[in-house]
């Protein structure tokens, strides 16, 4: 279920470009019978299909909103230093 969900969601312009370029590498490698190119093209296509974005490997790109938005400001005191 999670795999089908990942295939259906997250389609941005960048994902279309990555899937298209991976498919282009795969197609040209199949046409010219290059085994290494088929592996690389398949890898790029599958990774771009299953990922949400460029840096979504561990979910580290998603920001977490801070629910505790207190509007209290702290007064910062600065000390002036002498210039030689």
SSE topology sketch:
Layout: H1 2-8, H2 13-31, H3 35-50
Number of helices: 3
Strand content: under 5%
Reported for the largest beta sheet, the result is: none
Secondary-structure-based class equals: mainly alpha
| Low-pLDDT residue intervals, each spanning 5 or more residues | none
Distance between the termini: 68 Å
Shape: elongated
Percent helix range: 40-55%
Gyration radius, in Å: 24 Å
Average pLDDT level: 79
Order of helices and strands: HHH
Would you report the number of β strands? 0
What does this structure look like?
The chain is mostly helical and 84 residues long. The longest helix is centred in the N-terminal third of the chain and has 19 residues, at 13-31. It has 3 helices and no strands. Helix 2 (13-31) packs antiparallel against helix 3 (35-50). It has a domain at 2-50.
Quick structural summary:
With 84 residues, the protein is an all-alpha fold.
Key features?
84 residues; mainly alpha; 3 helices
């Amino acid at each position: 279920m999670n795999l089908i969900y990942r295939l259906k969601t997250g389609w941005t312009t960048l994902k279309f470009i990555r899937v298209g370029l991976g498919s282009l590498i795969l197609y040209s490698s199949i046409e010219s019978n290059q085994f290494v190119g088929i592996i690389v093209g398949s890898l790029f296509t599958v990774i771009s299909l299953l990922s949400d974005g460029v840096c979504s490997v561990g979910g580290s790109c998603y920001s977490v909103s801070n629910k505790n938005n207190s509007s209290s400001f702290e007064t910062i005191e600065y000390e002036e230093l002498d210039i030689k």
